[in-house]
Amino acid sequence: xxxxxxxxxLVEYTVRVKETGNIVDTTDANIAKQEKIYDEAxxxxxxxxxxxxxxxxxxxxEEVMKLNEGEEKVIEVPPEKAYGxxxxxxxxxxxxxxxxxxxxxxxxxxxxxxxxxxxxVKSISGGRVVVDFNHPLAGKVLAYKxxxxxxxxxxxxxxLHLAIRHLNIPGEELKVEYDEASKKVTVSLPGKxxxxxxxxxAKVSFATDALExxxxxxNEIVFQEVIARKTEESKQS
Length: 237
What we know:
InterPro entries: FKBP26_IF, PPIase_dom_sf, PPIase_FKBP_dom, SlpA/SlyD-like_ins_sf. The chain folds into three domains: 1-85 and 137-153, Roll (Chitinase A, domain 3), CATH 3.10.50.40; 88-132, Thrombin, subunit H (Beta Barrel), CATH 2.40.10; 154-237, Alpha-Beta Plaits (2-Layer Sandwich), CATH 3.30.70.2210. Helix content is 22%, strand content 32%. It has helices spanning 29-34, 58-64, 96-100, 155-167, 199-213, 232-236; strands at 8-17, 23-26, 47-50, 72-77, 91-95, 111-114, 117-125, 128-132, 142-152, 175-179, 184-190, 220-226. The strands form three sheets. Strands 1, 2, 3, 4 and 9 form a five-stranded antiparallel beta sheet that branches. A four-stranded antiparallel beta sheet has the order 5-8-7-6. The relative contact order is 0.15.
């Protein structure tokens, strides 16, 4: 059965540049390790998308809505529906002196900041530096291999996966309690994450989306950082 806007889906995906096979992103930890893009700070595995929220490419989302639970599909996204075509006007030439007088020793592949924004150094020759301000994926056809693992119906589970997505903390380390009568959710997380600099912003992001997505069933959000005394057994393990 096709899905609708507002549905909560758990999906797995791997995105590659069609022409080269170069990887762009993946939810699969093993693939990330094989492709040498593994990020220890990231939570891998099926990830939550809410249809209509714009969390994935619009063209991909429209195709996902036609799938069924458990179905997998490779969706090819043309440049005009991804990062656009390459614009020759976004390739600019600068004098090498402009960078050296600021103390920059630029080399090919460096990302530099100029009055035109952030760009990539493509070549250096004859005292001139060519900088490309096109998005690195501009002009590329992207191949999204997407699998809809399942649709989530339970409110508590929806909130759990929303917390995993925003807080970037594994589900087994989170505890989410939802009280339907009081319309209150309590999110408990290990104290080891307290010092994480981005945590306050992640909490605000979660709260903003939760209150928007559960307008009729959520009025209050409580966060708890739990610091437990280590037992002798846990110290030895």
